[in-house]
UniProtKB/TrEMBL annotation:
HAMAP family: 16SrRNA_methyltr_G. Specifically methylates the N7 position of a guanine in 16S rRNA. It comes from Mucilaginibacter corticis. S-adenosyl-L-methionine binds at residues 73, 78, 124-125, 137. GO terms for molecular function: rRNA (guanine-N7-)-methyltransferase activity. It is found in: Cytoplasm. SUPFAM superfamilies: S-adenosyl-L-methionine-dependent methyltransferases (SSF53335). Its EC number is 2.1.1.-. This is Ribosomal RNA small subunit methyltransferase G. GO terms for cellular component: cytosol. Belongs to the methyltransferase superfamily. RNA methyltransferase RsmG family. Keywords: Cytoplasm, Methyltransferase, rRNA processing, S-adenosyl-L-methionine, Transferase. Its main location: cytoplasm.
Amino acid sequence: MTSDQLFTYFPGLTPIQQQQFEQLPALYEFWNNQINVISRKDIDQLFERHVLHSLGIAKIMPFLPGESVLDVGTGGGFPGIPLAILFPDTKFYLVDSIGKKIKVVQEVAKALGLKNVRASHLRAEQVNEKFDFIISRAVTRLGEFYPWIKGKFTRTSNNTLPSGILYLKGGDLAEEIKESGLKVQQFYLKDYFAEEFFETKQVIYVKG
Ligand SMILES: C[S@@+](CC[C@H](N)C(=O)[O-])C[C@H]1O[C@@H](n2cnc3c(N)ncnc32)[C@H](O)[C@@H]1O
């Protein structure tokens, strides 16, 4: 996928936003050589598998100016960094339990000139703030995740859904959802993106 193909899914990006997205491949190639944050086979498919996948959350939840979002287990900055480019007036806090990954996030955010990103080397359980939304991808099963972030929601969001979790997941989730005991809403990314990669990809919403 090229940047132009990516942009067709998000018309109306400013030249600055387009330039920030276009900087991502070179930045991640550089940082991935120092500190591995993306698997080698995926780095060639950065726009589809990491950037567009992260932006799937935006199709479900258009974050509002002033809203706050926590990205738990962000790794090299997914889904937080692409969403922070797309929503420059929303505040993103990216945390990960591995310090060197947070170093990559900080360097990438700095190189992009993102003023709406903070990143800390912390476990989710240690975060002591409240957020409008909590986002995540590929960290753990919902049943384990939920207790980490329970009670960390503002409950003031005026958005299309109340404050809650937006978790990127793939595959058959029936067992995982049942085991978690949580009431979830499932949104299918194939309704928004044509690429085969999104065939089973979902955004799982859980009210906070
Ligand atoms: C498979 S990686 C996914 C990274 C990124 N979200 C992505 O999709 O590319 C899982 C990440 O979760 C982090 N992690 C696991 N448990 C965590 C916790 N309790 N708090 C914060 N980060 C955690 C790990 O350090 C790791 O970087």
